[in-house]
Amino acid sequence: MAEILTYEDRHFAGVEALWEEVFPTDSPWNKAAEAIPAKLKVQPELFIVAEEAGDVIGTVMAGYDGHRGWLYTVAVKPEHQRRGIGTALLIEAEIRLSRSGCKKTNLQIRAGNEAVAAFYRRHGYLVEERISMGKRFDC
């Protein structure tokens, strides 16, 4: 049975391997070496892992800016999917966000990723007609 925990430094290699497997084409700034140190500076309690027998098998990173919550890097090792681990991670992130005063949570998935969209729909998330825009800072 998976244990849901707040991220600790000992989880780094497992998280890095998981993200490489689940998000192989992700941008360099989303890689573990960049994303994890940045997250640990801001709301580290919202970085959650699923661990089984000492192995990281899932993650979720969340954030709350006082207005909206966001979910990032929701990932479960493929061989552990469909066992409720993603659901457990999602629920834990929602509980922690709610305790912070968060009233609404947003997330983004890549267009065409119907399996992931179906997962979120099963958990009450709806598609909102928005245009997602972003800007990278060179710092």
Classification by helices and strands? alpha+beta
First CA to last CA: what distance? 42 Å
State the name of the first-level CATH class: Alpha Beta
Please bin the fraction of helical residues.
Answer: 25-40%
Oligomer: single chain
How many domains, as an integer? 1
Strand order of the largest sheet: 1-2-3-4-5
User: CATH topology, anyone?
Assistant: Aminopeptidase
Proportion of beta-strand residues: 15-25%
Going by CATH, the homologous superfamily would be Gcn5-related N-acetyltransferase (GNAT)
Strands, count: 5
Shape: globular
Order of helices and strands: EHHEEEHEH
Mean pLDDT: 95
Largest sheet: 5 strands, mixed
What Rg do the Cα atoms give?
15 Å
Low-confidence stretches: none
CATH architecture: 3-Layer(aba) Sandwich
Structure annotation, total helices = 4
Protein name: Ribosomal protein S18 acetylase RimI-like enzyme
Keywords: Acyltransferase, Ribonucleoprotein, Ribosomal protein, Transferase
InterPro entries: Acyl_CoA_acyltransferase, Bact_Acetyltransf, GNAT_dom
GO molecular function: acyltransferase activity, transferring groups other than amino-acyl groups
